[in-house]
């Protein structure tokens, strides 16, 4: 094959290759620019700047433990999951929770309780004193987002207190909360609707914790004197106080 010696032809080929490179680069940039950006949402609200910092004088005489939340597999994903009706579900790729949804729910409830009850969440943290600890467990049955209409949370939650001084446990209180919030248009409205719903549920949980803390623990009667030759008399266990659900 004869080499190309014509200078004009070589220049023309060079310009063609350069033009193709520019076009390829332009197409690549245009493709990248057309990818929608990710948007992130949280359920903890914007109250971080106004978080109450209790002093030694007004801090609550107990701690709380908000444990990990259980959520349905259908919403256990980073993306928002929308209920479109008629059994249709839409997973919105670029509208995401800033943390796993179960973590977001636990954090939102913990933030509300620590502010409203003037206490500290000591989950997975050792404590030096022996104040009572109220453990909160949450099981979300449904977490529904209907765009431009409503959000709904169906949750079963429990509260159990433990006195660290004598290892006495208060009764287990099990309640169910079903909260529906009307919302406007947009993904921000969905996050705000669920945020309001969690605040309402957290308020109910806080009320139960307050009631448990103010209810005196049942006092066991002194053991009956043992009579020789007769079996010991077992004292009846005192009835536990009944704490109603909100």
From TrEMBL:
Transmembrane segments: none annotated. Gene3D superfamilies: ABC-type transport auxiliary lipoprotein component. InterPro entries: ABC_trans_aux. Residues 41-205 form the ABC-type transport auxiliary lipoprotein component domain. It comes from the Bacteria. Residues 1-21 form the signal peptide. It holds the Pfam family ABC_trans_aux. Keywords: Signal. The keyword Zinc does not apply. This is ABC-type transport auxiliary lipoprotein component domain-containing protein.
């Amino acid at each position: 094959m004869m080499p190309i010696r014509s200078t004009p032809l070589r220049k023309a080929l060079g310009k063609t290759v350069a033009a193709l490179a520019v076009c390829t680069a332009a197409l690549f940039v245009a493709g990248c620019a057309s990818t929608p950006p990710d948007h992130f949402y949280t359920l903890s609200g914007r109250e971080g700047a106004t978080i109450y910092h209790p002093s030694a004088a007004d801090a609550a005489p107990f701690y709380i433990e908000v444990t990990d939340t259980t959520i349905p597999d259908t919403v256990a994903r980073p993306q928002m999951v929308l209920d479109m009706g008629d059994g249709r579900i839409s997973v919105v790729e670029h509208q995401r929770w800033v943390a796993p949804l179960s973590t977001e729910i636990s954090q939102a409830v913990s933030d509300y309780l620590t502010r409203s009850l003037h206490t500290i969440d000591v989950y997975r943290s050792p404590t030096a004193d022996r104040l009572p600890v109220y453990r909160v467990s949450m099981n979300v049955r449904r977490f529904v987002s209907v765009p431009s209409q409503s959000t709904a949370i169906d949750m079963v939650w429990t509260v159990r207190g433990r006195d660290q001084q004598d290892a006495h446990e208060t009764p287990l209180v099990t309640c169910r909360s079903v909260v529906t919030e009307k919302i406007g248009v947009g993904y921000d409205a969905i996050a705000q609707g669920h945020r309001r719903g969690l605040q309402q549920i957290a308020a109910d949980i806080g009320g139960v914790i307050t009631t448990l803390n103010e209810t005196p623990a049942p006092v066991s009667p002194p053991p009956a004197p043992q009579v020789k030759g007769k079996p010991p008399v077992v004292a009846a266990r005192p009835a536990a106080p009944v704490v109603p659900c909100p």
